[in-house]
Design brief:
Blueprint lengths: L1 E7 L2 E6 L11 E10 L1 H8 L15 E8 L11 E4 L9 H4 L37 E4 L2 H4 L1 E2 L6 H4 L5 H11 L7 E5 L3 H12 L4 E6 L2 H9 L3 E4 L5 H8 L5 E6 L12 H8 L1 H11 L18 H9 E9 L12 H6 L3 E4 L4 H14 L10 E4 L3 H9 L8 E4 L9
Parallel strand pairs: 8-9, 8-11, 9-10, 11-12, 12-13, 14-15
Antiparallel strand pairs: 1-2, 3-4, 3-6, 3-15, 4-5, 5-7
Helix pairs in contact: 5-6, 5-13, 8-11
């Protein structure tokens, strides 16, 4: 089968690999009808999330058809159409039973202290082969896979695999209450769904901070008040728009590949911090493999964390959903403490949210496919990755489809 394979930092390829097989009674084999490219994939290719094992299939978003199930999978059958949660969980441990699926004690073969298990990630996450392929083995399928109703199509469903649940969890972590003022840093796919989720939670005002016009335009279309950090200092702008108080809730939907402003008043402050950012880059991405304009790590890893703490009102809440590796160790803890901020963060507990979000889509409360901007065949995946990595105008979320329907598993 064809699959997107990680060969090294800055080196991914569309390879022919062996089709997966059932390994445990709780496994299922799914034929992928849709997968997607995520910013987390870029972290690994850029080198800002280290530890990837060469030969690992990338991707952690998927929709497909069940082809085969293990003997312990009693709630699914061949032919069922399903969405695949990005994080893997057993469903039996105390963490799963409390809804903390990303902290499952059993799913990660490296042990309960190893962290979140997810598809297409580094060795510390499993590793598990990912979903940018024609077929995938799904561990704990009896718990993880969520059957899809016929009135939700693949364009909607692929966004329920990771991006929508992650954005919704970001809004929930932020403790948004009706009337709250919210700032979302980063208007990529997760940021767009954080904005949408803040609206669902009845936020009073939503500010969206980014520097890419097409992303800001999409945020504006959702009703957010937009701030281009290459034109305005985002902290000063947020304070001026809130009577000098700051925002009640802040969401970091950027993570480790943040960039400092390269123009406008914010660039002056960023220039003073450039030596610090250089040191951070070396810490989080000791090895890179930049090729032309592609695979460049962000030039200011902690930029959004600093902005978020500065922009928050006293006694506000900061929700961090953007990805940071364990090597990222810079955070303005003193400022946060002086302001009595509440900090919440973590990897998404996808399985907790997907059933609820499926119902929201079915009722028409939200149409997630409005965030989907590109649909590409799997055969064009490398070019699609490069365009997405460059943050080309209009490239916000990319869905991948098999170029032809592969033969069923024997």
């Amino acid at each position: 089968m064809k699959a997107v394979v990680f060969h090294g930092i800055g080196d991914i390829r569309l390879d022919n690999v062996r089709e997966p097989e059932l390994e445990k009674p709780t496994d299922a084999i799914v034929r992928l009808t849709s997968s997607a490219i995520c910013g987390t994939d870029l972290h690994m290719i850029r080198g800002t999330m280290a530890g990837m094992k060469p030969g690992t299939i990338l991707g952690h978003e998927g929709v497909g058809i069940v082809e085969e199930v293990g003997t312990a999978v009693r709630n699914l059958k061949q032919g069922d159409r399903v969405v695949i949660p990005s994080t893997i969980a057993c469903g039996n441990c105390s963490y799963c039973r409390c809804g903390y699926y990303a902290q499952c004690d059993k799913a990660n073969p490296n042990g309960p202290e190893a962290g979140t298990a997810f598809f297409g990630g580094p060795e510390t996450s499993g590793p598990f082969d990912g979903l940018q392929a024609e077929f995938a083995r799904i561990p704990y399928a009896n718990v993880g896979l969520v059957k899809l109703p016929s009135d939700i199509d693949d364009d909607q469903a692929i966004l329920l695999s990771d991006i929508f649940p992650t954005g919704f969890m970001a809004a929930e972590l932020a403790e948004i209450r009706p009337g709250n003022t919210v700032a979302v840093f980063g208007c990529g796919p997760v940021g767009q769904f954080a904005i949408a989720s803040a609206k669902l939670l009845n936020a009073g005002r939503i500010f969206a901070v980014d520097a890419i016009p097409s992303r800001l335009e999409m945020a504006r279309d959702q009703g957010a008040e937009v701030i281009n950090f290459n034109e305005d200092d985002p902290v000063e702008a947020l304070k001026s728009f809130t009577g000098g108080i700051g925002v009640d809730r802040v969401i970091d939907a950027v993570g480790v590949d943040a960039n400092a402003p390269h123009a406008g008043p914010g660039a002056i402050k960023a220039k003073l911090k450039k030596p610090m950012y250089k040191a951070e880059q070396k810490m989080v991405a000791p090895k890179t493999n930049e090729k032309g304009d592609n695979w460049h790590p962000g030039d200011a890893p902690s930029q959004v964390l600093s902005w978020a703490v500065e922009a928050a009102a006293k006694a506000g809440t900061l929700s961090i959903i953007g990805v940071y590796p364990e090597t990222a160790q810079t955070f303005p803890i003193g400022q946060a403490m002086e302001k009595n901020l509440t900090l919440k963060m973590g990897n998404c507990n996808h399985r907790k949210y997907i059933p609820k979000l499926v119902d929201l889509v079915r009722t028409g409360a939200i149409d997630p496919q409005e965030i989907l901007t590109q649909v590409e065949p799997l055969t064009n995946v490398i070019d699609a990755y490069q365009q997405f990595d460059l943050r080309q105008p209009g490239w916000i979320k990319v869905k991948l489809e098999p170029s032809e329907v592969p033969a069923a598993v024997a």
